[in-house]
Design goal:
single chain, about 210 residues, alpha/beta, Methyltransferase, Methionine Synthase (B12-binding Domains), Chain A, domain 1, Rossmann fold, 2 domains, five-stranded parallel sheet, binds CO-5-methoxybenzimidazolylcobamide
């Protein structure tokens, strides 16, 4: 890996907020594309954090400080990820499902959708099905985007879709899902309208569903 991206990768791995911010700036100054800074310098580091946690080398505090460094770096990168020719493309209510506190991936998806011109209602983390229902019924969201990072919280995607069904709102909204353990097969199984494995695919998915 290039030296600048590798310094950023290490700063995130070590949870060093100020070096992560400096690393993003240095990579931008060196002419790296925002997309590759994100993928190679930042998301790859979070994957490695996950691997170290699985191996028992990292614990929750290390995951948490790495996440802080990632978020600090993302804050700096955000303006470069948003495109300039923004058109209104629909309203998306996004949230991490009930019981789940992971928000970095959800925030990235929100950021990319915003960059593509969607209006974003960010419901945050640990979002109960009723909040999604309210976003459709009261705030007229056209698309619901659900994120889950834990196998134990994935069933709350199903519960959310069922609650929207029961509220009689299923035909008013498209529902898309994603997150590391989520698959297309699971999306089919629970009756979601689409699945995407990453933030940029989430944009093309939302665009194609909104065009319908
Ligand atoms: Co957690 N954690 N964590 N964690 N954590 C994972 C998810 C884990 C895989 C680590 C591991 O074991 N390898 C594991 C889950 C195992 C499983 O369920 N199979 C795990 C665990 C076990 C836990 C706890 C239970 C640990 C504990 O307490 N013992 C606990 C649970 C807390 C809770 O939620 N109730 C916990 C806590 C935490 C922290 C709070 C410390 C922290 C989160 C901080 C935060 O988010 N603000 C944390 C972190 C940082 C991670 C890892 C290391 C990194 C996640 C991340 O930010 N990745 C993670 C390991 C891993 O994922 N490999 C792990 C970077 C991010 C850009 O990727 O979120 O996948 P991701 O998002 C991608 C795609 O998935 C997709 O697009 C994004 C961008 O490309 N996407 C969507 C995501 N949402 C989408 C929605 C869409 C579309 C696409 O809508 C349409």
């Amino acid at each position: 890996m290039n030296a600048k991206l590798s310094a950023l990768y290490n700063a995130i791995l070590e949870g060093d907020v100020s070096t992560a911010k400096d690393g993003v700036q240095a990579a931008l100054d060196a002419g790296h594309e925002p997309g590759s800074i994100l993928a190679e310098g930042m998301i790859a580091a979070m994957k490695e954090v996950g691997r170290l946690f699985e191996e028992g080398d990292y614990f929750v505090p290390e995951m948490l400080i790495a996440a802080r460094a990632m978020q600090a770096g993302l804050g700096l990168l955000k303006p470069y990820l948003l495109s300039s020719d923004i058109k209104s493309a629909g309203r998306v209510a996004i949230g991490t499902v009930k019981g789940d506190l992971h928000d970095i991936g959800k925030n990235l998806v929100a950021l990319m959708l915003e960059g593509a011109g969607f209006e974003i209602i960010d419901l945050g983390v640990d979002v109960a099905p009723e909040k999604f229902i309210e976003a459709v019924a009261v705030r007229q969201a056209n698309i619901i985007a659900l994120s889950a990072l834990l196998t134990t919280t994935m069933p709350n995607m199903k519960a959310t879709i069922e609650a929207i069904n029961q509220a009689g709102l299923r035909d008013k909204v498209k529902i898309i899902i994603g997150g590391a353990p989520v698959t297309q097969e699971y999306a089919n199984q629970i009756g979601a309208d689409g699945f995407s494995s990453d933030a940029s695919r989430a944009v093309s998915l939302a665009q194609s569903l909104f065009a319908e």
